[in-house]
Amino acid sequence: MSRRKSPVLTDHELRLMEVLWRKERATVADVVEALAPPPLTYSTVLTTLRTLERKGHVTHEADGRAFVYRPSVQRGDAATSAVRHVLDRFFASSPGALAVALLDDARLSDGDLAQVKRILARRRKEKK
Which of the four CATH numbers 2.170.270.10, 3.20.20.140, 2.40.10.10, 1.10.10.10 does domain 11-71 have? Predict the structure, then answer.
């Protein structure tokens, strides 16, 4: 039985996607070269890019003998998907519960606190 596909990027996949988002297009060799340590082998990067393509996160086109990969998912969309996954899995799909957990656990700067206050004030006005 095959493993269920993850709705979000694994840490390993995210490393490769970060390179593609930064470069916008890259061959396997380009990705290998641009990866932050620890290094990965060419075959590991190729296999992971193929997995990302099956999942719909990247596409490729032939350029001579090489394949050039491009992200087909924006970074912001991948982040939103990851947050939704955490929200559904750990907070019963309650954005309020997630926000409370984040605010209660974090040390926020004065700027962050001011931004949270502005957002809350705006949301209160929208409800009226």
Answer: 1.10.10.10
